[in-house]
Design a protein that fits this description.
Layout (H helix, E strand, L loop, with lengths): L1 E4 L29 E7 L2 E8 L6 E15 L6 E14 L4 E6 L1 E9 L5 E7 L16 E6 L2 E18 L3 E18 L9 E17 L2 E18 L2 E25 L9 E22 L5 E6 L1 E8 L3 E4 L14 H9 L18 H11 L9 E3 L28 H10 L18 H12 L25 H9 L19 H27 L3
Parallel strand pairs: 4-19
Antiparallel strand pairs: 1-17, 2-3, 3-4, 4-5, 5-6, 5-7, 6-9, 7-8, 8-10, 9-10, 10-11, 11-12, 12-13, 13-14, 14-15, 15-16, 15-17, 15-18
Helix pairs in contact: 1-6, 2-3, 2-6, 4-5
């Protein structure tokens, strides 16, 4: 450990969302106590927490179990999530240290606004009534023991608020957090240190950002703490202060890797393996006073700086192998194989023609599978107030487009994609399902799916491509954003050719790159901007 010390006292949260088997971390899965976690089985997490209340870092290791329940407030129509956190065996044997917490309950009230965004307000305690509170009304208890010193929580105020902006394939989250904990310190007799009354107050203010989606989840928090100690020993007193900054990142991502077969005498050359990794990283830096042998602060400040990390054992899933021998050596062979493995492409693989133009309907089927819906929180148990009435058998199904009949072989996928906001028509209630897909069409759908249209200026986005003026008006913002995030680049001469029709091969390369951005590109932007990892 580098001697620069930091204080991370009680409370950090992380976001963190599928191949079935291993679940992604969600908001609050690290708890709100300044720790990091990685799920070992549903609802149970390997947990680490760093505490600096004694003036030096002490890392506690243990287990965190989470149970969540959701119900609707009949008076306010808000969804209410009650989360119970059970901390087990939080110890550091080298420091003779332990943390004991009981009755750790947080209540989150979710309010859906007219624009579809959701506001979350989280408070401490089981506040299921229509009037919530930020105080520790349910009397969560916390006792920290480090050597001969015991720190007992006497007052706890906590509030956290998030805004969730749900886009077709991603939920974006931003939040703010404020916490204040007050501890009373007692010291065993005969230690030679101060035996007066010591109060330690830890206040934290922070921001959080994250996203949930099918291919991965990332959340980052940055919290600034102020720590104040007040020692009264007879007629003598000692006031001291310190500060700390904590950065935390939790991430779960699906990674795709091609593995060649070692023996060559097999019916297939190799195949793709999908790996899911969950990891949490904490970086901290603080400046705290040095204490003398009697526990009184000196004029010397000590700086602490270090990091901690916890990971789950990776989950591996072999993907189906398509019969694409006729594509051997084709420039898009790997992209096409990957999409067949991920089942974004389906059908008779032996008939796949890479040079055939892809239609708008065919692309819609593929993007619906590439940009799947955000998975539900696997820990959340819902108490239903009432079951919605089942649709009548004679309910008439109406197509959103005049040129897409309900009998069309792609109707179900086009209808679903339209309802999710992945696609829109070409005007006059038409979709043009059999028209060739252009690059401009594809980019527009990609960026709409990501919900990143707002990254382009409203006054007219300009790209660096030499044929920028050829970009149709409806695709200008999307093309600008696609270039900015690295989805596209021009040819050797700097041209994009936005109106060109996409072959199956070019569409496969773009879709695979789009999935790669959802898996890795987003995470890199969130993680590297805040946590140096």
């Amino acid at each position: 450990m580098k001697k620069y010390c930091v204080v991370i006292l009680s409370f950090l949260a992380a976001f963190s969302a599928v191949i079935p088997v291993t679940a992604f971390a969600r908001t609050g899965d690290n708890g709100y106590e300044g720790g990091i976690s990685a799920e070992t089985k549903t609802g149970q997490f390997d947990y680490r927490e760093v505490c600096f209340i004694s003036g030096e870092p002490v890392v506690f290791k243990g287990t965190l179990t989470i149970k969540k329940n959701q119900k609707q407030d009949t008076a306010t129509k808000q969804d209410i999530i009650t989360a119970t956190y059970t901390y087990s065996s939080l110890v550091n044997n080298d420091k003779s240290a332990s943390i004991t917490r009981t009755n750790v309950i947080y209540t989150t009230r979710r309010t859906k606004k007219d624009n579809g965004q959701v506001i979350e307000e989280t408070s401490v305690g089981n506040n299921t009534s229509s009037t919530s509170t930020t105080s520790n009304n349910n009397k969560m208890t916390e006792i920290i023991k480090i050597g001969n010193d015991t720190y007992t929580l006497t007052n706890y105020n906590f509030t956290r608020t998030n805004i969730i902006d749900s886009r077709p394939a991603i939920d974006y989250i931003a939040g703010d957090i404020h916490t204040v904990k007050v501890y009373q310190k007692s010291t065993s007799a005969g230690t030679g240190t101060s035996t007066g009354t010591t109060t330690v107050t830890v206040e934290g203010l922070g921001n959080s950002y994250g996203y949930n989606q099918y291919w991965g989840t990332t959340g980052v928090d940055t919290i600034k703490y102020t720590i104040q100690g007040d020692v009264k020993n007879g007629t003598n007193s000692d006031q001291w202060g310190g500060e700390a900054t904590v950065s935390l990142s939790s991430s779960a991502v699906k990674q795709l890797k091609y593995v060649d077969n070692e023996p060559k005498t097999m019916s297939f050359d190799g195949g793709f393996v999908l790996t899911q990794n969950n990891s949490s990283i904490m970086e901290y830096a603080a400046r705290l006073p040095e204490f003398d042998s009697k526990g009184i602060s000196t004029d010397r400040a000590v700086e602490w700086k270090d990091s901690a990390q916890v990971e789950t054992f990776p989950n591996l899933t072999r993907l189906p192998i398509a019969n694409l021998g006729h594509l051997k050596g084709h420039w898009a062979e790997n992209d096409i194989k990957a999409l067949y493995g991920l089942e974004v492409f389906k059908g008779n693989d032996t008939l796949f023609d890479p040079e055939k133009y892809m239609t708008r309907a065919e692309f819609t089927v593929a993007i619906l599978k590439a940009a799947r819906e955000v998975p539900a929180d696997p820990l959340l148990q819902t108490t239903a107030a009432a079951r919605p009435a089942a649709a009548g058998r004679n309910t008439k199904v109406v197509s959103p487009f005049a040129d897409v009949s309900t009998e069309n072989m792609y109707f179900s996928q086009i209808n679903d994609a339209y309802k999710r906001g992945l696609i829109s028509g070409i005007g006059m209630r038409s979709f043009g399902p059999d028209e060739n897909l252009t690059l401009a069409d594809a980019l527009t759908i990609f960026i709409r799916t990501l919900g990143l249209e707002g990254m382009a200026s409203s006054g007219g986005a300009v790209t660096t491509f030499k044929d920028n003026d050829d970009i149709p008006d409806y695709a200008r913002s999307a093309t600008y954003v696609a270039e900015k995030i690295g989805l596209i680049q021009g040819d050797d001469r700097g041209y994009l050719y936005p109106g060109s029709n996409l072959t199956n091969a070019r569409a496969a390369a773009l879709i695979n790159r789009f999935i790669g951005y959802m898996r890795e590109g987003l995470r890199k932007d969130y993680r590297e901007g805040i946590v140096n990892y």
